[in-house]
């Protein structure tokens, strides 16, 4: 008499395909808020204070370079709308 226990076990390939389908479904809703990130608006006073603080940093500081990169990202987010 044959055992049917092995027939009821899903094959690894079937499990992989099932996981890929579920992953694809989960990724579908990731852009529900829209493709463009929101741009945070800063008051004029906050911008002036930030300019003073950045000016006080040493020449070639990493934070100044990072803020420059952030400015580029903000411009790209604005253009995305």
CA distance, first residue to last residue: 68 Å
Give me the count of strands.
0
Task: Compute the number of structural domains.
Answer: 1
Shape: elongated
Please give the largest β-sheet: none
> Percent of residues in helical segments?
55-70%
Total count of helical runs of at least 4 residues: 3
Beta strand %: under 5%
Rg, rounded, reads: 26 Å
Stretches where pLDDT is under 50 for at least 5 consecutive residues are: none
Mean pLDDT, all residues: 78
What is the ordering of alpha helices and beta strands? HHH
**Alpha-beta classification:** mainly alpha
What's the structural blueprint in terms of helices and strands?
Blueprint: H1 12-27, H2 44-55, H3 62-80
What does this structure look like?
The chain has 81 residues and is an all-alpha fold. It has one domain. Helix content is 58%, strand content 0%. It starts with 11 loop residues before the first helix and ends with a helix.
